[in-house]
Specification:
11-stranded antiparallel sheet; mainly beta; globular; 3-stranded antiparallel sheet; single chain
Length: 249
Amino acid sequence: MRSNLFAPENQEQESAQPGLRLQNSKMLKVELAGEFLARQGSMVAFQGDVRFEALGSGGIGGFLKKQLTGEGVPLMKVSGRGDVFLADAAQDVHLIDLEGPHDALSINGKNVLAFEPALSYDIQMVSGAGSMSGAGLFNCVFSGRGRLAITCKGTPVVLNVDQPTYADPQAAVAWSAGLQVGVHRADQVGLGTLLGRTTGEAFTMTFGGHGFVIVQPSEEVPVGGVGGQGGGEQAGHGGVGGVLGGFLR
């Protein structure tokens, strides 16, 4: 049989080391020998002895987290031995390695695809976000040592924050956790009206200090909280409402 589908770049990528790696620019491969956490609905294929477990709400503490963060990031624990392939609506996948206790990254929940369990994580509300509704107001903050995978809709730009920096809340993917971050009405930062017409930007995120901001070339439709449900079968079964409280225990 002959086809361009069988070109070397489309063949399964092999590695001698287990863990998260790129199969291609839009698909993550996890060579599994233990466990990791991933967005529900992101599995597109797997081989071997692999088990998937939807995470629950984690008792009253988890319930309160859920109430604060909306639908959150519906997660599943993936364990066993084998190869697992993950993707999210053909978005670009990027790997980030956190390298110690002083490394910390704040990520919009809808952009979290998978991460190693060695990482620490929490939920933090963006300062000033109570004045608006929409996605990205509660962010996932990761720290420690380990690898995580995020998604971007299109090729992102990484802005070096060495002067006042602004971004649309729906386009900001992630930023250095040490930055001073706020949310302001557009007219407070010069994006007001012109002859009675709006600029189309209702709110703007502001960043100060020293660090970086990752911005994607797409303004996502707000889904509430720290990110909506994943696609696929897993998003509709066994613990989607459990959200982040379950893994923040």
